[in-house]
Amino acid sequence: MSYDTQVPPAAPRVMRNGLGTAALILGIIGTVSGFIPLFFWLAGILGLIALILGLVGRGRVKRGEANNKGVALTGTLLGLAALILSVVGMVIVFSAAKDAVDEIDKAIKDSAPKDAVTKNLAAGDSAAYPDGLKVTVSAPKPYSPSEFAPGHTEGNKAHQVTVVIENGGKKAFDAAGVSLSARAGKNGVEADQILDEKNGLTFKGSVLPGKKATLTVAFDAPEDAKNLSVEVNPGFDHNASQWELKVG
Questions:
Q1: If you count DSSP H runs as helices and E runs as strands, how many of each does the chain have, helices first?
Q2: Contact between 214 and 134 (Cβ < 8 Å)
Q3: What is the tens place of the pLDDT at every residue in 21-67?
Q4: I want to staple 125 with a disulfide (CB 3.0 to 4.6 A). Which of 75, 77, 121, 142 is the partner?
Q5: Measured between alpha carbons, how far is 109 from 102 in angstroms, rounded to an integer?
Q6: By C-alpha distance, which of 200, 121, 116, 214 is closest to 162?
Q7: The pairing of beta strand 212-221 with beta strand 157-167
Q8: Most distant CA pair in the chain: distance in Å?
């Protein structure tokens, strides 16, 4: 009686190609995302995962556990490319954000009121602004308004001053937005502006670069007032300046 001693053939080894394939898919998606700067974060995440899976997949190939060497290698390279694109995209996005913030800051600064050099100026002093605008108020002189001039009260004294605006900037200045006011005496009572044929109310039109505009105005003050505070506000984008003038 004989026995068959033949050993049955070994079962074929199953190749573990999943990691290499996953690395390829994630690498492709990550690389495509990397070309869109706003998706730099997605490209970075997918690229890192693809790189890790690709390297592990190549390790399986070397150990004979997988046979998709080309797929794993491609996934690894795409993962690395996605990481590089992620860094580039991050730089682009943050640079664009910084530029946008700088532009906003510049716009805010441009729209903010421009400070004059000082306040409480004396007669003949000039208030100089950063944009080249300069405002000067002369010393007051006594003035005799007409009998029925609006703004003058009988028994009060009138004082006339000259306001000069000089545009040393590069753009035309709209003088129509200039406002003037005054207070008189130790109690700082409002000094009405006197209107007649010899005095103006406010500036008109524009002052071109390198040009000047002059306005003569008169204010009504109590008879015993010893000082006249004149305030000139060049407009909403400039701060007002004040001149302390001696009268009486």
A1: 3, 12
A2: no
A3: 898 999 899 899 989 989 999 999 998 998 999 899 888 888 888 88
A4: 121
A5: 10
A6: 214
A7: antiparallel
A8: 154
H or E segment to which residue 223 belongs: none
Please name which of 212, 224, 200, 205 lies closest in space to residue 151, comparing C-alpha atoms.
200
Contacts of 129 (CB under 8 A, 6+ apart): 114, 115, 116, 117, 135, 234, 238
**Sign (positive/negative) of CA torsion 80, 84, 85, 90?**
positive
DSSP-derived 3-state class of residue 130: coil
Give the span between the Cα atoms of 247 and 184, in whole angstroms.
9
- Alpha carbon distance 157, 138 (integer Å): 18
Could you tell me the two tokens for 198?
């010899």
Contact 47, 27 (CB under 8 A): yes
Task: Give the residues across from 244 on adjacent strands.
Answer: 229
The structure's pTM equals 0.55
Specify the DSSP class assigned to residue 21: H
Type of residue found at 212:
K
Q: How many residues does the chain have?
A: 248
